[in-house]
Write a structure and sequence with these properties.
Layout lengths: L1 E5 L3 H12 L3 E5 L3 H8 L10 H10 L3 E4 L2 H7 L2 E4 L14 H13 L4 E5 L7 H12 L4 E5 L9 H6 L4 E4 L3 H11 L9 E4 L1 H32 L3 H9 L20 H14 L5 H13 L4 H7 L8 E5 L14 H11 L3 E5 L4 H8 L4 E2 L12 E4 L11 H7 L4 E4 L6 H6 L3 E3 L6
Parallel strand pairs: 1-2, 1-4, 2-3, 4-5, 5-6, 7-8, 9-10, 9-12, 10-11, 12-13, 13-14
Helix pairs in contact: 1-3, 5-6, 9-11, 9-12, 11-12
The structure holds uridine-5'-diphosphate-glucuronic acid.
């Protein structure tokens, strides 16, 4: 099939590349000339495991092309994916200007039947809006379909190639048939393509992300309470998670959720509720609790140093909002670092992938270390913000030699309490005994 993908951000790039992998002819469109030139030369503009291999293979096979010309993209695809940014407006709602501007152009330029697919996370009613905007100028038939994406950064390729489900919001049989054909290679395992109306599909995405953010937040509250009563949240987590109605995943407590999706989507759904006079009280609490959770370790660090962090050097492991990505959007590490800097601490930081992005944001306010151990040199304490695998089994005796004080503040509960204590460390984590 002939596919066009408008927007080569995270979702667009993964969608385009993975659709090429099953033999479709894909053209990806982006207005950023420099980025398009790089992609033509095989450079993947984001860090995402396994994407580079697929990228190279499909470019070589001539199935994956890039252009800055929207016209070329619109001519090419029978199915046109919109994978455009929907940034957060000042009031928390999703800004649809990119989506609607491109829709306007689509209306003016398409010459034969097309299926326009909303792939971005968009508020309920967007497919209807997109349809109206295109219909103003369109001289041929078209359908608009909502097809939210559920991939996770760091696992995006696997999530796209082997999805647990595909949600398609469509009220046109013609468009539904094309979408089913396009996705059939990805659901050979028997996982479902769930067909529903456009609005329900749009809401499914917000509901799923908000539910997961709530699940994490609930566990963070249980963790905070565990500390009050001397219980161990990791035991509670396992005890709860083995109930299949609850499930083991997304129950890991820590210093809060971040990223480009959960924070934005929870706020957008809360705002969308308000617009319809519906008060999502649970989401208001989730936003509030998560914001406080990000700096939950700060008073504990201060307390250890008798409320004086001036001149103290803190080593930080992990800056990305989660492992296997260089993305730092809404990362808890940012709130922690701002808090520590404000208290006068010096910071020596290390992350396997996110250092360039952090450097762009913090400049010379931080010391950037070459390795996880280099960050510890002459530091007064270690703080862990992201659970990269490399941090899971450190050489504790080396850690002890490098750190001025044997103390670890762990925002992701990486280590077994007894093991770390046996190594002679003071170990402060989330929801467990100190
Ligand atoms: C999330 C969803 O998981 C995807 O299904 C969705 O498609 C995507 O948003 C999106 O809307 O595009 P992502 O933001 O890549 O994916 O990352 P997650 O793996 O979901 O993690 C989000 C945050 O929750 C991270 O900060 C992570 O550290 C935190 N988290 C996750 C926890 O604190 N505890 C957990 O148990 C799980």
């Amino acid at each position: 099939m002939k596919i066009s993908v408008i927007g080569t951000g995270y979702v667009g790039l993964v969608t385009g590349t993975c659709l090429a992998e099953t033999g479709n002819e894909v053209i990806c469109v982006d207005i950023d000339k420099e980025k398009v030139e790089k992609m033509r030369n095989g450079v993947v503009p984001i860090y995402e495991p396994h994407l580079d291999v697929l990228f190279e293979r499909n470019i070589k096979a001539n199935r994956l092309k890039f252009t800055t010309s929207l016209e070329e993209g619109l001519d090419h695809g029978d199915i046109i994916f919109l994978a455009l940014p929907t940034p957060e407006d000042e009031d928390g709602s999703a800004d649809l200007s990119y989506v609607l501007n491109v829709s306007e152009e689509i209306g003016k330029k398409i010459k034969n039947y097309k299926v326009i697919v909303d792939k971005s996370t968009v508020p309920v009613g967007t497919a209807e809006k997109v349809h109206k905007v295109i219909a103003k100028n369109a001289s041929c038939e078209f359908d608009v379909v909502s097809n939210p994406e559920f991939l996770r950064e760091g696992f995006a390729v696997d999530d796209f190639l082997k999805p647990e489900r595909i949600v398609v919001g469509s009220s046109s049989e013609r468009a539904t048939a094309l979408m089913k054909k396009l996705y059939s290679p990805f659901v050979r395992s028997g996982n479902p393509i769930i067909i529903m109306d456009e609005k329900s599909a749009e809401l499914t995405k917000y509901a799923a992300n908000s539910f997961l953010a709530t699940k994490i937040t609930f566990m963070n509250e249980i963790a905070n309470y565990c500390e009050k009563v001397g219980a161990d949240v990791d035991m509670v987590r396992v005890g709860m998670g083995t109930d299949s109605r609850i499930g083991k995943r997304f129950l890991f407590p820590g210093i809060g959720y971040g990223g480009s999706c959960f924070p934005k989507d929870v706020k957008a759904l809360q705002k969308a509720g308000k617009d319809k006079n519906y008060d999502f009280k649970i989401l208001t609490s989730v936003i509030e609790i998560n914001s406080a959770q990000k700096t939950i370790l700060l008073p504990k660090i201060e307390n250890y140093f008798s409320n004086d962090l001036k001149g103290k050097t803190i080593a930080i492991w992990g800056l990305a909002f989660k492992p296997e990505t260089d993305d730092i959007r809404e990362a808890p590490s940012i709130d922690m670092m701002e808090g520590l800097l404000k208290k006068g601490a010096k910071l020596q930081v290390f992350d396997p992938e996110a250092m360039p992005n952090i450097e762009k944001r913090f400049g010379n306010r931080l010391n950037y270390s070459e390795s996880m151990y280099a960050a510890l040199e002459n530091a007064d304490a270690l703080l862990i913000c992201t659970e990269w695998s490399i941090f899971r089994t450190p050489d504790f005796s080396r850690l002890k030699k490098l750190l001025k004080n044997p103390v670890i503040f762990d925002g992701r509960n990486l280590y077994n309490l007894n093991d770390v204590e046996a190594e002679g460390f003071v170990y402060v984590s989330v929801g467990r005994k100190t």
